[in-house]
Automatic annotation (TrEMBL), chain A:
<dbReference type="GO" id="GO:0000177">
    <property type="term" value="C:cytoplasmic exosome (RNase complex)"/>
</dbReference>
<dbReference type="InterPro" id="IPR015847">
    <property type="entry name" value="ExoRNase_PH_dom2"/>
</dbReference>
<dbReference type="InterPro" id="IPR020568">
    <property type="entry name" value="Ribosomal_Su5_D2-typ_SF"/>
</dbReference>
<keyword id="KW-0271">Exosome</keyword>
<dbReference type="InterPro" id="IPR027408">
    <property type="entry name" value="PNPase/RNase_PH_dom_sf"/>
</dbReference>
<keyword id="KW-0963">Cytoplasm</keyword>
<dbReference type="Pfam" id="PF03725">
    <property type="entry name" value="RNase_PH_C"/>
</dbReference>
<dbReference type="Pfam" id="PF01138">
    <property type="entry name" value="RNase_PH"/>
</dbReference>
<dbReference type="GO" id="GO:0071028">
    <property type="term" value="P:nuclear mRNA surveillance"/>
</dbReference>
From TrEMBL, chain B:
<keyword id="KW-0269">Exonuclease</keyword>
<keyword id="KW-0694">RNA-binding</keyword>
<dbReference type="InterPro" id="IPR002716">
    <property type="entry name" value="PIN_dom"/>
</dbReference>
<keyword id="KW-0271">Exosome</keyword>
<dbReference type="InterPro" id="IPR029060">
    <property type="entry name" value="PIN-like_dom_sf"/>
</dbReference>
<keyword id="KW-0540">Nuclease</keyword>
<dbReference type="InterPro" id="IPR033770">
    <property type="entry name" value="RRP44_S1"/>
</dbReference>
<dbReference type="InterPro" id="IPR001900">
    <property type="entry name" value="RNase_II/R"/>
</dbReference>
<dbReference type="InterPro" id="IPR012340">
    <property type="entry name" value="NA-bd_OB-fold"/>
</dbReference>
Amino acid sequence: MAEILLSEAEKAFIHHGVQDDLRCDGRTRLDYRPIILETGLVSNASGSSRLRLANSDVLVGVKVELASPLSEKPLEGRLEFFVDCSANATPEFEGRGGEDLANEICRFLQMSYMSGDTINLAELSVLTGQQCWVLYVDILILECGGNLYDTVSLAVKSALYTTQIPSIKVATMDGDQPELELSEDPYDTKRLNTQNVPCLVTLMKIGNHYLVDPTPEEECCSSSGVVVAVSGTKKITAVRKIGSGSLHPESLVSMLKTASEVGTVVNKILMTKLLEEERAGKTQKVGFMR
Amino acid sequence: MDMLTSKIFLRKTKRGKVLKVVREHYLRDDLWCGSDLCKKCNQENSEVLDDAPISSSTLCACPHYVVVDTNVVLHQIDVLESPAWKNVIVLQTVLEETRKRSTNNFKKLKEIMATRKDSFYVFVNEHHKDTYVERKPGESANDRNDRAIRKACSWYQTHLEESQQGREKKKKVQIILLTQDFKNREQALKEGIPAYRVDEYVKSLKDFPDLQEKLAASHSDDNAENREPLFPEHWAPTRIMTGIKSGKLLQGIFHCSRENFLEGSVSVEGQDKSILLQGHASLNRAVDGDIVAVELLPEDKWTSPSGIVLEDQEDQDPGDQIEKEEALLTNSTKGKDLQPTGKIVGIIRRKWRQYCGILLPSVLAEGTRHLFVPAERKIPKIRIETRQAATLSSQKIIVAIDSWPRTSRYPLGHFVRALGNIGDKDTENEVKLTVLLLEHDVPHHSFPETVLACLPSMPWMISQEEVNCREDLRNLDICSVDPPGCTDIDDALHFRELSPNLYEIGVHIADVSHFVRPDTALDKEAANRGTTVYLVDRRIDMVPELLSSNLCSLRPDQERLAFSVIWEVTPNAEIKKTRFTKSVIRSRRAYTYAEAQCSIDDPLQQNELAKSLRGLNKLAKIMKKNRMEKGALQLSSPEIRFEVSTETNDPIDVISKPMLDTNSMVEEFMLLANISVAEHIFKHFPECAVLRRHPVPPESNFEPFLKAGKTQGFTLDVSSNKSLAASLDAAVKPDNVYMNTMLRILATRCMMQAVYFSSGTVAQVDFYHYGLAAPIYTHFTSPIRRYADLLVHRLLAVAISADVTYAELLDRKCVQQLCNNLNYRHKMSQYAQRSSVALHTHLFFRHRVQDEDAYVLSVRQNALQVLIPKYGLEGSIYLKEKDEDSKSAFIYNPDEPSQTCDNITIRTFDRIVVQVSLDSKYVQHQKIAVHLVQPQIAGLSVEPIKTVNVSEPTPKKLKSGN
């Protein structure tokens, strides 16, 4: 992650701000920065979204492909995440610089989606044990402005929300090979139920308090925190501690509680916004030319 | 609106991946409407669409431009060719849809537009910013295109309206949409676009009254797709292949039953019993000859062939419905004689060809969908579309099958060509002959120039060099014995005493391979034809006549090239030495069988030739005896010959071919030569020798034969060919002399087909020739009329170092391919010959009704199959008319089998009297009708004919070769 050089005085200023529940940009501890979201930007992908949270900018594309299911889960399709940290975001990402971060995010996403509650992978099965849909979720990090986990998770959720899975039916069995028939109507697609897909909420501990949606500067001031995956039903599907500092069990419990509340709200708002966008129908895409 | 849109669609790749394809689609605002009256468009002058078009349509009197829908182009392209069309707007949507649906019509439309640039205007509506429409969710591609067309129409309307504001209402140019699609028309009218059907519109064109004849009747294709499928679906090829590999399915050739169109069988290679198929669903659209995949039913569903004779004989077009078949099939006797029963699950290879037949008179003469009835009974009727039904109904026509969809009762085909009028006396025979040859796939075109170029130039002489490298046998007293009128003499014989206890006999065969060199056009043509086809009044040559009747024919007193087989034999017909040589011979005389017989029998004739013949005859008799002891069969099939009137070319009498000693004498030596040659070429070419085998028939084949024997009280032993021959010889009844012949005829029908093969493809034990009881056999003696003999000649020539080989000759796969073709041609030629005889029988009975003696060949549930020996004719007597309730209550006893009515019982082989006549009810589909005369059965038998005295026919001994 990009290192920001801060003087002690600056750190103290942030520290005091958090203590008084008034952060540098005027937010309270549990306020998010404004989020800009647009879906369907990548016409070649089956689903896509671009999400900008203050200065963090992420583009997500979902590609659906037919493949054979994993032998241990013959009834399910699967999701595969791939994060690419563009060197545009920060020069440190150049070469293999962003790889560690990318893997970290990937792993955590995978983990948080693992719970059966989040997404019904059986919906992705086409033919038991033989064919299923695999959703390749490609995440491109265009700019790092802090709170990357939350940004990525919201973008992924939005992209999955818009993903159109072609409707396909098994026409005939041809020996052992199924003959799959693709619907002729490009609008004849199905969508995944993304209601419960988890959002990640990062809580940073600064002093005795914790806050959501940290800016890079605030991240600099914190020695520890947690990332919590919260599903639409308020359930926590994964937790990960970040930073080198330690957390007191009591404060951890309290953080998890707060995270699950915040996550639920974020989830709800995101879903309403996505629905709103969908209802608005086809409008001029804004894209990157703003 | 954005000028850039994208077309998105999903595509599945061959490897099964699903791709989302996004194409950028740019819209423009500089596409002009093409009308002269338009003031808005920035176009050059002299536009396609007139400023003030003149309407000749009564339907729409005001001036108008015409927009055509895709279905008009697809179905009425012929109409569009007319100059009546002016001011036509062809939308790009229509063009693209046409291209996708029918390349033919697209090409035609392009041509029409190219030649008539002044009348057709292409409007690129798909790229016009105001007429482009995007597909809506839930909308089919078709509906979207219809909408695009309507959108273009209404755009034109408003666009033109703006330019002709000042005009009188009557003079304003309108847009008319022509579409065959009801929904599109409705929708268009709703949107305020005048829309008509193209036929309505064309009929209203008062200046072009002829145009409506070009209209194709509206298709009901859309219907067809939605119809309930009548047949089970065919499996996918790979599924069939795995099924066959795993043994779940069987592959074989489908044969439709001659007697019952709802029944067929599949002969599977290496299987004893063929698989029975019954009913439409089981036959599942197979056509006779197709290679099919069959799934066996569980054993408890096996049945036996139904005893009834059933013809698909509706005189009217039943439409696409399958008649209730339970009634037609229930009669199959359950419980005994169960045969493996199966159903066809897929067609591996179609063997469709062109079929000849007639159109079924249609209820709707103006309709375009008609039923075609093929002349062959085994082929189903074919649904064709033609607009010339009226003209074709009196003609023999040729039709090809295109497809057989699941929803169609009959296969769909198309009309290929008409052969000529049936009723027309002059052409009738010619037409029938052509039909016959076509049906049996006999190549009968005259030889092309390239082939004739391979012939030696005339006058032709044997060169001295040729003589030098051959054995000179001109000094020998060689003669030929053939049927009268034979011009292609391919064999000759000689006999001489070397010492009192050693004779030399020689068989000399025309050296056709000298003239037909490998890889020439002549060779290819001959290989394709495979055999000469002998019809009653015609011969279709395998090689051009110059060779067949002159240069190769071993004419008397002419020096000819030959391939000779010379044996030294003892008086006991023991062969001491065999040699083969290319030779030059001069035949002394061409005997007919009868003449040769005379020479042998007449003790006064003491010339060398007569002596030779006697010697040959004596040896032949010994050889024949030896052969019979080994188990060779003497079978029988009726062979007849027509006496043809020289004037009318009509047959005036029928005689069965006599069999003389000399016939069998010649046959005996030919067999000997064939066997000797077979052994020799197999020794030299174990991998690629062309041989002929006659497989041992499976026991099951003999069932009808054994049953028939049992009814007569004979126990027939079919365990080997020898025992069969013995039991046939023993089965004689003094009171029914003909019975033995009948038994032999039945035995013949149990036999397998003899086939040519390449020795490398079959295990040596299977080389056996069952009929001749020879362990190895080939054809060597008739190279003029059989291509196989020619191949054997070439092999033998190489074996004796008289010729060189070539690659194809030594490649067993090539040889096997050739053999397959020969087998096919051979079979077809036999069928053609039979048909030719049948044809002449029809001609013979055209003005005759005769009572003749007949014998019951087999007793069926609802019919008797009878044989009329005098004509070698077979027919069925239906015991119960199909519709009426049986007045004559025949009781069928399937065990015997017999039919009993009152106190008369008819069994197999019973002698009865029948009346033979030509049934001309269907003028174009005549057949021989057989009615029972004796024994008299009320309601069934007919009155005997008084004028013709029924003479007691002497049972004729009929024989045939192998």
